[in-house]
Specification:
Blueprint: H1 2-28, E1 38-44, E2 55-58, E3 61-71, E4 78-84, E5 95-100, E6 107-112, E7 125-126, E8 128-130, H2 135-153
Parallel strand pairs: 1-7, 2-6, 5-8
Antiparallel strand pairs: 1-4, 2-3, 3-4, 5-6
Length: 181
């Protein structure tokens, strides 16, 4: 009986050690912990789905990480602080936009470089921003626009034909049994 217990303990310890090694490898190679670089700011009307730790990408390549997100109490805008890799100069007229990583993917901050020769310094703000697009709002607008189009195209709706013309008058019949000449 003592052999079974010792073998189970050794096997359990080996499994936990292997799981710990996999976890350490995943954390070390995820890129989430790397916040080196210089900080920049950007203000957005809405940042739906953008989380602290999200990627900052330039031309699709990860160049930094979102480090803080908070509300500016004066403007009620979302203020995002993020890092950009040292050695990567961001022109002053660059823009920042919150983009989706696919239909069901997470959000990330995308930097689009400008052409200005003046470079943003640590702690300065990117002033040209585009907020996150809400998929729910877009879907709701689409559904309502389709239903409005269907109701407008229904024949006889509001006394008009689909082309917007009044319906034709019914054929005239004569009463009294006389024939037209």
């Amino acid at each position: 009986m003592a052999r079974h217990n010792a073998a189970e303990i050794v096997t359990g310890a080996a499994v936990l050690t292997a799981a710990g090694l996999f976890l350490a490898f995943a954390v070390a190679h995820s890129g989430r912990g790397n916040t080196s670089g210089y900080p920049l700011l950007a203000k957005f009307e809405r940042i739906d789905g953008l989380a602290v730790g999200a990627d900052v990408r330039l031309a699709g390549v990860k160049v930094g990480t979102v480090t803080h997100a908070r509300i500016d109490p004066k403007s009620y805008m979302a203020e995002v602080e993020f890092t950009v890799a040292n050695g990567l100069d961001v022109p002053k007229d660059s823009s920042a936009e919150i983009t989706s990583d696919g239909l069901l993917g997470g959000k990330y901050l995308s930097l689009v470089p400008g052409g200005d020769s003046t470079i943003l310094k640590a702690g300065e703000a990117v002033t040209i921003t585009q907020s996150a697009v809400s998929l729910e709002q877009l879907l709701g607008k689409f559904i309502f626009s389709v239903s409005d189009m269907k109701s407008a195209a229904t024949p006889g709706a509001a006394g008009t034909t689909p082309a917007g013309n009044p319906p034709p008058a019914p054929p005239a019949t004569q009463q009294g049994g006389t024939q037209p000449r």
